[in-house]
Protein: Coenzyme A biosynthesis bifunctional protein CoaBC
Organism: Nocardiopsis suaedae
Amino acid sequence: MNTPEDNAADAPEVVLGVGAGIAAYKVCEVLRRFTETGHRVRVVPTADALRFVGEPTWAALSGRPVATGVWDTVHEVPHVRLGQGADLVLVAPATADLLAKAAHGLADDLLTNTLLTARCPVVFAPAMHTEMWEHPATRANVATLRARGAVVLTPDSGRLTGADTGRGRLPDPGALFESARAALRRGPGPADLAGRHVLITAGGTREALDPVRYLGNRSSGRQGYALAATAAARGAQVTLVAANTDLPAPAGAEVVPVESAEQMHRAVLEARKGADAVVMAAAVADFRPVASAQSKIKKTGAGPEPLDLAVNPDILAEVSADRAHAGQVVVGFAAETDDVLANGRAKLARKGCDLLVVNRVGGGRAFGTEDNQAVVLASDGGSTEVPTGPKTDLADRVWDLVAERLTGT
């Protein structure tokens, strides 16, 4: 029977640092996802973290011995070697204490020593009570770590320990895993979106016909969520305006739920004010009923009444024409069924955005799938082909192009 130690030498090496928080139990699922996708994982819990989840659990899930102290296997110099050999360090949950130690370079245990020696991407997933997250000391520590190139995800809002509710919840394990993988794909080097605020739209709007029915589209929101996850993993502050999705919130993103095009319009105009980039990946309905019935429309023998439609706001064109500030980068998406490039270039000129991601839809392509393929058209006449692959690949290529434009601002 093979163990992770028998895997190919080029398998990614992940150090999973576990802080002393009740959310440690959720990290077991993150570890399972890593090992099932071929990553070699070394779990490095703090001493108090083992009060929440014991060493046998981490060892069984990782298939490798748990690294707990600087005096274990001294001949291997673990306090240096673990960080040096890692392709990614993920700290989850990252407690206020761990963030403070990392920000100030303290090294009183194996995990904090590892953080000092790591030269790979380092991702912190904070989890703590709201008051601790909002304390000026924690804010300062987070800012310090981000300035050094570490990715510190913004915690989710929701139920905390006991009856408390607020921001400070560890992200969904699946979303956290995807953000960690995005950081791993990026590789060593500074987080190129650090200090940037990006606004993303995702999903498909719904326009009510009556309390039961609506006009809508087939968008699942997966591409927009991939854009949000990869942006957060590249250091950005992410605001995601999401319409009618059933996906877990991307780790590190602040999600603003909406339903209709008019609601999305209002949310985007508000959130764009401080955004360095606006990426409109949502499928926004072009039309809405002039009036929505207050009760369910009944079927009659005479057939349906004609449906009067009004034009919805063109959010992309409005944001492109009226930038919130100089240097704001605006990206649109175009879903086309035929004459893809011709229609895409016409839409790019009409909308006035900097980049337009054009992809062919229908026939099982794009909507609701895990993969995507696109051509990214630029306002200066350039184009970038993105071959069929995971939607995270397209997301990363879009952010590459956005980062190039932001660098010049």
Q: What stands out?
A: The longest strand covers residues 329-336. Residues 197-407 form a domain with the Rossmann fold fold (CATH 3.40.50.10300). The radius of gyration is 23 Å.
